[in-house]
Structures are given as C-alpha cells and as structure tokens.
Amino acid sequence: MQHLTKSLRLLTYFPAGKRVLPPGSCPFWVLKKGYSSEPVELSFDLYTGEGTDETRPPLLTYHGLFGSKQNWRGISKALVRKVPRKVYAIDVRNHGESPHSSVHNSGAMSEDLRLFMEQRNHPKAACMGHSMGGRSMMYFARKYPEMVDRLIVVDISPISVPRSTGEMTEIFDAMVSLDLSPSLSMSEGRKLAREKLLEATEDETVDFIMLNLRKDPDSGAFSWACNAQVLRDFLTRFDNYQSNLEELPPYTGPTTFICGSRSPYMRREQWPQIQEMFPNSEIHWLEAGHLVHFEQPQEFLTLVSEFLNRSD
C-alpha cells in the first residue's frame, strides 16, 4: 500500500483541459473532434439508510483522477448508517460513466455540480472531495457558498501540489497510443494493456489505471473509461488553479480538511494561508499517505460523521 500511495501521488489532480473525445468511451484508434464547455449530466450512485432525513442537505462526493464513484462505495454505505443524509457518489466529467468533455477544470466541474443539485431540487448540500475532487469542491464552495452546507476536503491543498509531469506524460502517452484489436478477449486485452503501461510506470499504479479499461460487448472495441486524451493534453496546466481560486471570496462555512501525515499533498506550513481562504476550517492528520479514506477508513468515517452531524 505504501508503494501504491507513492505512485498515486502522481495520479490525482490535473484540473485543466481543452479538446475532446465525444460522450462515452472512444476507441484508442479513433479520436474524434468536438468541443463543448456546457455542464454535463453526471453519473452517480445514491445511498440511503433507515434514518435518512429527506429534509437534510445531502452529501455529494467527488473522487480523484483515474477514480470513479466506486471509490466511495464502502465509505458511502457506512456513512448512511451514521449520518441521516442521502449520499451521492458521483463520477466527475471525463471519468467513470459520466460524459467526456473538451474541458476539464475545477470551474467546469463546479458547474456540473450546480446542475446536478438544481436538477434534483437540492438548494444546499454538504460537499466532500478527494484530491482533484477536493479542489473542485473548494472551488464550488467559494463560487456558490449559498449552496454549500459544509465542506470536507480530503488530502489536497488549494495552494500547491507535488509535480512530476514527466512520468504522467509517459503514462498518458501509453494509454492514448494503445491499439488493441477488437478480436482480443478482455483478459488478453488486459494483459497487453498492462504490459504497455508497465513500460511507463510501476506495478501498483498500473493496477489502479487498469480499472478504467473497458470492452464494448457489441463491437469488441477497447476503450478507457477516463478521457485520457484530454487529461494528457493539458497535463502541465494544473497550476492555473490557485490563480483562478484567488478571484473568488473566502468560503466562511464549516470546513474540515482530513489529510495524510505521510502525504505530500498538504504541507503544514501552508495552513495559515489556507485558513485565510477558509476561515471556519479545521484540519485533521491521520497516519496515512494520499489515500486517507482507504488506509484509515474507521478513523476517516468517525471524523466525517461527527463533522456532518454537528449543529454548527
């Protein structure tokens, strides 16, 4: 797990992009053009429990890069037993079962969330995001504070992130250039894809990326669930996040940061500056790397449920 966490430090935040694959997965050998900056309708899983209060603002969750709503399945099932709220685990744009788009940044993902809430008549929601998803939720809270009941940010700073674009470029190049024959079985395709990706990065990272491999049951075409082309094209532009965030006022609602003590994604010396952006915030450190909610699930659940159940 330690090696996996180290590898995934490279895989969790790249929130800028233009160019497109059309909605749905696109075969590796066909990269069609098309451009759109409109909000997209997001795929999601809804979790409820016996004590769910329909009048309480729901909890909305965003995952990190290469992730999906499945990353929050276990946490969501446990949370609805502890918290009287609906929990929506959401696939962000260009990931999972949500549409592919020409734009991939925190502003666009915030507009997706606004549309999601409006379509379901939720005037307010608690928002939780990990890494890339955490940055999107921070942006959303500062742009639409009246729509945010409270904010949970999981192991990501609004100020800076570790940078290693060289290895990531190699990973995306391997993904985009992968050409698998539709005649191959899923197991054969997975074997070849894994071998190709192993040329760009290490074992544990490959296993995580391979969760995105898909095979169309009708045409046999292989594809990635995530929009690898868009993410790769704008890999070096994620530094724009802080300058865009500075244009928005601080979010003054209740906010908690839950971070891994062994992760480089939140630096302790940045905390005073972060509190200027989120003046009603607190921070918790768990003995974990970047995947805090996987490595310390019980401690994570306790912090999140207590925060969501507060009356402040």
Automatic annotation (TrEMBL):
Q: Which UniProt keywords apply?
A: Hydrolase
Could you tell me what reaction this enzyme catalyses? a 1,3-diacyl-sn-glycerol + H2O = a 1-acyl-sn-glycerol + a fatty acid + H(+); 1,2-didecanoylglycerol + H2O = decanoylglycerol + decanoate + H(+); 1-octadecanoyl-2-(5Z,8Z,11Z,14Z-eicosatetraenoyl)-sn-glycerol + H2O = 2-(5Z,8Z,11Z,14Z-eicosatetraenoyl)-glycerol + octadecanoate + H(+); a 1,2-diacyl-sn-glycerol + H2O = a 2-acylglycerol + a fatty acid + H(+)
User: Has keyword Amino-acid biosynthesis?
Assistant: no
InterPro entries per the record?
AB_hydrolase_1 (IPR000073), AB_hydrolase_fold (IPR029058)
Record family assignment: Belongs to the AB hydrolase superfamily.
What are the protein's GO molecular function terms?
carboxylic ester hydrolase activity
Q: What EC number(s) does the entry state?
A: 3.1.1.116
Residue ranges occupied by any AB hydrolase-1 domain in the UniProt entry:
57-297
Species, as recorded? Drosophila rhopaloa (Fruit fly)
Q: What is this protein called?
A: sn-1-specific diacylglycerol lipase ABHD11
Q: Which Pfam families match?
A: Abhydrolase_1 (PF00561)
What are the annotated GO cellular component locations?
mitochondrion
